[in-house]
Design goal:
InterPro entries: Beta-grasp_dom_sf, Mopterin_synth/thiamin_S_b, Thi_S, ThiS/MoaD-like. Pfam families: ThiS. With 67 residues, the chain is mainly beta. It has one helix at 19-23, and strands at residues 2-5, 8-11, 33-37, 40-42, 57-62.
């Protein structure tokens, strides 16, 4: 399936059907991420049940510490 991920056209593997599936992939695994699909923020508890569709615009925002 082809989507826009952080502004880049990306081809997801066939087993990536939910946000949780994509986040399990490197380089996203283990990071604290805010997810937005087609302009809507997705609550963390909905990642496993939020299905992705061809052409979705997905934004992953990860948090970086600093000081």
């Amino acid at each position: 399936m082809q989507v826009q991920l952080n502004g880049k056209t990306t081809l997801l593997s066939e087993h990536c059907i939910t946000i949780a599936d994509v986040l399990a992939e490197s380089p996203w695994s283990g990071r604290r991420i805010l997810v937005e699909i087609n302009g809507e923020v997705v609550p963390r508890e909905a990642y496993g049940r939020t299905s992705l569709s061809e052409g979705d615009q997905i934004e992953f925002v990860h948090f970086v510490g600093g000081g």
